[in-house]
Amino acid sequence: MAGHGPLVLGAMLAIVAVSWGFIAMTDFVSAGKVDHFDRRVIGYLRHHPQPPVIEDMAEDITALGGPGCWLLVTGMIGGYLVLARRPFIAGWLFCTVASGAVVTIFLKGTIDRVPPGHPAGMPEVGYYPSYPSGHSMMAAMVYLTLGTIIAQLVPGKLAKLYVLMMAVTVTFLVGVSRIYLRIHWPTDVLAGWAAGLVWALLCWVITERVRQIRQKRKAVMRGFQVLQSPQTHQADESTPRPN
Question: What are the tens digits of pLDDT across the range 100-137?
């Protein structure tokens, strides 16, 4: 586990850097400094419609970030981990997703921002705040965490890299689909990715630390048993045996 030291350090540095980016993005959105960029992207999509099949695909992909999909995937993978006698990893998955869902709900009220799909001229009431993108955030948390877990279980560096790349690809496509369908502004998605990545990394670092403590405790217990074994053997030899 000592070999994971550089990975843990890199994750902690990433947490700090991406958290700073999320805070900066939130400040920019609050001050309206990114409105021009957001409106240009959404305006381009509105004036350059794509074939209906592309929009159908985007709707299918965006569903991967919805609660129905990530709850189903989490339950299926978590159930397998329990059956495979890996309860610690299953607990890591369930805790990450459950706590991440709570954090997502909390962050959705950070900025009361009107989504791009809200009809023009309509009162700015009766909508769900679009910042940050909840689908993008949950996709980052769930699929990056699942990718990390599965990468630990499959053999070979190439297979591990493939699994991680697929997790990143799904996360990316979910966010892009939210923009393409004009459900979220681009900065909503960027903020969702950032928040989801931070939470996934934070849960991984905590889990890694807990696993290290558990391994050290097991090593101490094994050492104690080794020390006790010679004493037990000597005691057995010193016991007089009946003739």
Answer: 899 988 888 777 788 886 544 444 444 567 888 999 99
Q: What is the pTM of this model?
A: 0.81
Q: What is the pLDDT of residues 171-192, one digit of tens each?
A: 999 999 999 988 899 999 999 9
Helix axes 157-180, 134-153, angle to 10 degrees: 170
Phi then psi dihedrals of residue 131, to 5 deg: -110, 130
Q: Which residues pair with 111 in a beta bridge?
A: 131
**Range 94-116 burial, b when 16+ CB lie within 10 A, else e:** bebbeebbebbeebbebeebebb
Are 188 and 131 contacting, i.e. CB atoms less than 8 angstroms apart? yes
Rounded to the nearest angstrom, the gap between the alpha carbon of residue 41 and the centroid of all alpha carbons in its chain is 26
The three-point CA angle 33-38-43 to 5° equals 140
Distance CA 146, CA 78 (A): 10
Q: Comparing C-alpha atoms, which of 187, 191, 141, 176 is closest to residue 58?
A: 176
For residue 222, give the 3-state DSSP assignment.
helix
How far is it, in rounded angstroms, from Cα 171 to Cα 16? Answer: 21
